[in-house]
Amino acid sequence: xxxxxxxxxxxxxxxxxxxxxxxxxxxxxxxxxxxxxxxxxxxxxxxxxxxxxxxxxxxxxxxxxxxxxxxxxxxxxxxxxxxxxxxxxxxxxxxxxxxxxxxxxxxxxxxxxxxxxxxxxxxxxxxxxxxxxxxxxxxxxxxxxxxxxxxxxxxxxxxxxxxxxxxxxxxxxxxxxxxxxxxxxxxxxxxxxxxxxxxxxxxxxxxxxxxxxxxxxxxxxxxxxxxxxxxxxxxxxxxxxxxxxxxxxxxxxxxxxxxxxxxxxxxxxxxxxxxxxxxxxxxxxxxxxxxxxxx
Length: 295
Ligand code: NAD
Hints:
single chain, alpha/beta, six-stranded parallel sheet, three-stranded mixed sheet, 52% helix, globular, binds nicotinamide-adenine-dinucleotide
């Protein structure tokens, strides 16, 4: 039996794909409606991470941040409180490499294997089962994880030992966060200067200024004024903090990362934290007095 903890924007879709591939899945989330959604697809509900861990061979976690992953592993009703030796835990969250490395050491003392396998590809990739998955694990644990990960992703790579997956993920999201901040400013400039948003999209998506931020976020987000996540401002803010912390650890300045984080900070101050990260366009729209919307 597989366990799955954290049934949010990403987790629910990844869990659904594991169920579709024929796995028996037990689920846990602090939000009862999220659990009900998976029960409707055939999952069973576990009373706690500890109860789940006692019966599972593999447990997946897809949680918002390092502190919650740590609590889910080490808390009184956490995974390690119920785990038997031999349990395999795969963390799909994007968290700080130092935390996953610390947790893997503590887990190993109990005979439990823990690896990091953060994902990229957004909720669309999670739904289609086409995620990119960056794994931090020994060769042996990577081989053990792969058949499970193939249920949720298509590009699955071992990056290095535990923590390496989370490291490449934070570098990716540093870039994505900076690209989105630049995109928001650039699109608003184009509209303020008199161009139609569709013209900007059509030309730039086929020019040197294109980016995943543009192609993933224009049609369903900016152009419609739809800011339902998606990937929340709060999560991108957290990922930029992971990059900033890592830059401090290795002793390098992070000019654009820090500047971009201030944009997401401003969005949080405006109350946009739970909206999709593309909601940062509203900040530039407010300065400029125009909107990047199609009629
Ligand atoms: P989310 O906030 O939508 O989902 C998190 C889920 O965890 C929620 O259902 C929440 O109720 C649950 N949760 C919170 N605390 C819990 C606890 N103590 N015990 C059990 N469940 C708990 O977030 P998401 O967008 O699904 O992201 C999950 C992780 O994946 C994050 O680390 C994020 O950075 C990463 N990620 C997200 C995306 C994306 O596009 N949304 C893409 C790649 C990676």
